[in-house]
């Protein structure tokens, strides 16, 4: 699949529909496994979505995840900053296609569901799973 | 009765038992082609005439001729005291000789002959009408369509292969090889083709010659004591006739077939006949003829695993205690036999601390038994403070109870119930006339070994006599291979005599070379009651016969170059990886069900056969397997249906896998299986804890479920319970893992860090987890494997790395974690502990 950018609204290259990613109860047993793997595959496009770029976003998700976990009461205070990752993703796409449209949509779809500490935690775990599977697909930062 | 009268009664009973034991000797002799002078004359005397006016059951004629052949090697059966038979010169009762009693069982005329004929029927569970058919049956059978076997070519069916928990008969596809009993011949072999008659005759001939030669091995001096000699003979008879089918006749004269499966050996049948015949002859009064006496050693765990104060010589003591359980059970059985003036052949089973004796119902039988019980209780109260003991249960029975159908099943149920009741009435404390609290004086304090029994001071040590004997036994067991049981009054025979009296007997260890030469006089002075060979097999194929009564009461122990038991701390270091012990405890699943309902047509001989066959695997084959393949293993106990083993941890895992396969090869029945618990510990852990931990692990294995049903048939290792198939699979994965680590080292000069492998343990737990985030394990596996291994292997391009990951990690590890989940830990632990240094 390297070299082809078949991303289109809502669907990955293998027909994976990112709108099926849901952090509300009940959680899909496949969320952190099969779905995360599919997402990783859909992000694996030559020339964009380098592991370093994705990791930057993942690191930020982790940072906010930890802050929220440490003090859940401040979630609403953090939320605008968390949502700012949408803008950062759009910027990264605009800047030499560092990330692609699929990633921007993924971030947007996931952030849209982050409404409390619990969903923030699940978003973090989901991205952790995606990054794990991405390691096999893009072991080198190229 | 006076002492002399009772002695004569015992000898007469032994003589009658011998006659009954030999009643089918002719089957063996005939099939072996024994030279038969005047066969026609013998047929006319001993064989019944069929409706077609031909003689059937020619083996009876051979029995008479074969007794003549062995006569020179057995105690005198013609002259002198011959009660209950007539002596050679007794013209009035000339037809009532021992030979005729043995050989006339198909044409009985006198009372004694009729008793043996009746016992023959009872042992086989025949009703009289069926027995008449049997009388005229041709010794030929159709084993499978078109495949006829006769009494030469028929081979013994493995009873264990034919049973199911519900009593439905399974057609066996294996037979016992026609050989003398040895650890390797106890395994049934597949029926490939039916042996031809010539080959069969040769096999029988060779077996017969070995039997005759084996007879000469019984020390001639022992012929002076028939009860002693008969015990030896019973072992010889077992060794050479355990694989000979007793019943081969299933086709009647009119061509119809009777369903008499060839699943009972000549030994098991004739021993049951001997026991029943003696009881039938001896019973008193009207009504029920038999008193079936069961014995049960209770508190075995407490006896063997009582926590000691002393830690040194733990291995030696453990060995001694375990042996002592088996020995005390044997001696208790002897005590019962002696109380009823019965020979050793009346003891039908003895396995794993339980025995069954067929006694006659006599007027003061219950009182005699109570006397024995009191004596046993006294001994155990004095030497164990009642923590252990042997309970006796008596069940009255009559001839009708031995018939087919529900009557015998009901008898078995009664036996189980009576034994159960006896277990709940230990020491009869509710009815005891003596004060249940008894005095004990501690003049020298408590024993420094067990920390509770009154000690005696000897050679600077303060220990109790029992502990002292147990340590002595532990030493002697590896040096000696015979036991002499003598009357208490005789005093110690040598330095190798145990200090205590054991249930009223004196116990001396001796070597094979000393026994007949030095102690022949003991037979003449009637002091030697039993001489038992407890040696372990030296050779897998050599007959288990050394000239003395065998008792499979000894386990295998690892010895050092000085012939001393290897201590646990040294045992732990033998083998690869971390120095630790593996403890294995297991037993056969659902055994009670098999015994209660397993046999389609339960008979007395079949029940005895089943018990003996199962016991033989654990008491004979297992110690031999240890000696042959697992030399660092220590059998704490193995017999009946259970086992408890200890050794270097890796060897125990290998032994478990091997045992499962060997047991399957032994029983040839996927419905019969065992479960086991394995625990790994440092050698310093106290012995009682080892017992407790392994017992717990076994308990976990017994809880294994499939589709909501408890199925057992499992092994528990490192707190994970798996089926045996999974266990084998996981052992395979462990080997692959070890090979992979080695391959990376050798081919890529890359060392797999233990952090990666330990990390997998966590992933295994997650794979089993119920929380949604546990599903992250796969992603973690990919990431960690790339980050910690694949990325770091030098000299590979990206395509090679991806290929390596898929081939060596994703499929062999990742997919298997997905399949085995947390049970994958068994493979991981086994691998990891092999990599660890001994000092860790």
What does this 3D model show about the protein?
The complex is a heterodimer of chains A (142) and B (840). Chain A is mostly helical. In chain A, 61% of the residues lie in helices and 0% in strands. Chain A contains 5 helices and no strands. The two termini of chain A are 15 Å apart. The N terminus of chain A is likely disordered. By secondary structure, chain B is α+β, with helices and mostly antiparallel strands. In chain B, 46% of the residues lie in helices and 13% in strands. Chain B is built from 27 helices and 22 strands. In chain B, the strands form 7 sheets. A 6-stranded mixed beta sheet of chain B has the order 16-17-15-18-21-22. In chain B, a hairpin with a 2-residue loop joins strand 21 and strand 22. In chain B, helix 1 runs parallel beside helix 10 and helix 13 crosses helix 16. Chain B is globular and about 105 Å long. The relative contact order of chain B is 0.08. At the A-B interface, helix 1 and helix 5 of A face helix 25 and helix 26 of B.
